[in-house]
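Workshop exercise sheet. Pairs work together: one partner reads the sequence aloud, the other fills in the structure field after running the prediction. Swap roles for the next sheet.
Pair: D.N. / O.F.
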Amino acid sequence: MTALKLIQQHVVTLDDLWMQYWANGGSAMEFELDAFLNGAFELCPFDNTVVAWALEDLNFASPRLRVSFGPSRICPGNGP
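Structure field:
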């Protein structure tokens, strides 16, 4: 299930997702994350990974949320 569907089905809120995303090191503002989820904005691969981490963190906080995640990539300039 996609993050947008989880928000639309009230499993998670955009605010909660963005706050967890930001806490994990995401760099997009909440309106940019919203635009990304709606297909109107591109996040770099690292920030895509951070969205997955945020959903994973929320998964542990909410038993209603069960998602799986793919491999991660790092944006130039954000890696080791």
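Discussion prompt: The mean pLDDT is 81. What would you look at next?
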